[in-house]
Specification:
The chain has 193 residues and is an alpha+beta fold. The protein contains five helices and eight strands; from the N terminus they run H-H-H-H-E-E-E-E-E-E-H-E-E. A hairpin with a 6-residue loop joins strand 5 and strand 6 (147-149).
Length: 193
């Protein structure tokens, strides 16, 4: 992070104005552009958080209006441009892009036209790192309340991500007292690796 290349990755004025516009003039879009620039500069782990303005994915009210007007357009523009840009630069096969939240949303709409927290079922999208495009793994019931096919635990997702990043998910870590702790207590999802 202290290299000249990594520091320069934050200097978005060095980027082509047309490409900056393709990412979107939003904090998320420009964050995706910084992410691509950091990957290109050799930074091995980059996190892009959602923009912290009036558009939150925690849609307890106005779910449908907020998705259509505030959330999905910015996400679609920033994320799709990031994927295209990584692909065009030959970086997508060696870069894993993970899009996820910490839980799903209730299958039933509440009185405020919103969806509340729901831990039983949610979606994760993985791109790049040699994964085949268009693969769908797992399924939910009709109301997206519970998994019905190939449920994935958080541990299995973590093991899969580590594997795709070239980290042995069965590695052992040691704490300050030299006690062994497994990195992950699951195997990667075989259908994805």
């Amino acid at each position: 992070l202290t290299s000249r290349e990594a520091r320069e990755a934050f200097e978005l004025e060095r980027e082509d104005a047309g490409l900056r516009a393709r990412y979107g003039a939003t904090p998320f879009g420009q964050g995706c552009l910084v992410a691509r620039r950091l990957v290109e500069a050799g930074v091995s782990l980059v996190t892009v958080n959602w923009e912290r303005d009036d558009a939150y994915w925690d849609t307890h009210k106005n779910n449908f209006v907020d998705l259509k007007t505030k959330l999905l357009p910015n996400f679609d523009q920033g994320c799709s441009t990031l994927l295209d840009d990584l692909h065009d630069r030959g970086l997508l096969d060696e870069t894993l892009v993970v899009c996820l939240g910490e839980f799903g949303r209730t299958p039933k709409i509440n009185a405020a036209a919103g969806r509340d927290h729901w831990a039983a079922c949610n979606s994760v999208v993985l791109f790049g790192a040699g994964l085949p495009g268009g693969l769908v793994y797992g399924a939910s019931d009709r109301s997206a309340a519970y998994p019905t096919r190939d449920p994935v635990t958080p541990e299995a997702l973590a093991a899969t991500i580590y594997h795709l990043l070239g980290v042995d998910p069965h590695a052992t870590l040691y704490d300050a007292l030299h006690r062994p702790m497994p990195l992950v207590t699951s195997d990667p999802i075989a259908a994805l690796v």
